[in-house]
Amino acid sequence: MGKLTTHILDTANGKPAANVAIRLFAGDAKRTLLTTTVTNEDGRTNSALLEGDAMATGSFELEFDIAEYFASQGNELSDPPFLDTVVIRFSVRADEQYHVPLLVSPWSYSTYRGS
Predict the structure, then answer these.
(1) Are 24 and 59 spatial neighbours (Cβ–Cβ below 8 Å)?
(2) β-strands 109-111, 15-16: how paired?
(3) 79, 81, 100, 106: which is deepest, by most CB within 10 A?
(4) Contact 32, 26 (CB under 8 A)
(5) Integer distance in angstroms from the first to the last C-alpha of the chain?
(6) How does pLDDT run across 24-82, given as a tens digit for each residue?
(7) What are phi and psi for residue 52, nearest 5 degrees?
(8) What phi and psi values does residue 45 have, to the nearest 5 degrees?
(9) In the beta sheet, which residues pair with residue 36?
(10) What is the Cα–Cα distance from 14 to 61, expressed in whole angstroms?
(11) What are phi and psi of 67, to 5 degrees?
(12) DSSP string spanning 29-82?
């Protein structure tokens, strides 16, 4: 059975990004909201975003409220912020494990398929 997890690293301040709001959507034409969560002190969620029977083959979108996080850290942001909500669209197979990390600053981000 597959599983989907994520975590966020704040590359501007050199630490995990805690208290970031995350939303997971099924990536179909309707964009169905599947779950909402917030990162813990380690920049991770307390449980998998999807696993077991909830894991399905298809496209998904993760939304991360990044501007709100960096503002809470005292970072000076442009008005409007260059990055507000970071959206990552990706596809998975139901029988595999996926970890989608976000490395982010107020001005850039990257992701990859982690382990």
Answers:
(1) no
(2) unpaired
(3) 106
(4) yes
(5) 15
(6) 999 777 889 999 999 999 999 999 999 999 999 999 999 999 999 999 999 999 999 99
(7) 60, -135
(8) -90, 155
(9) 23
(10) 26
(11) -60, -45
(12) TT-EEEEEEE--TTSB-SS-SEEGGG--SEEEEEEEEHHHHHHHTT----SS-S
Tell me: pLDDT of 95 over 90: yes
75-93 pLDDT per residue, tens:
999 999 999 999 999 999 9
Tell which phi-psi region holds residue 39, choosing left (phi > 0), alpha (psi between -120 and 50) or beta.
beta
Tell which phi-psi region holds residue 16, choosing left (phi > 0), alpha (psi between -120 and 50) or beta: beta
Map tokens 């398929």 to a residue. 113
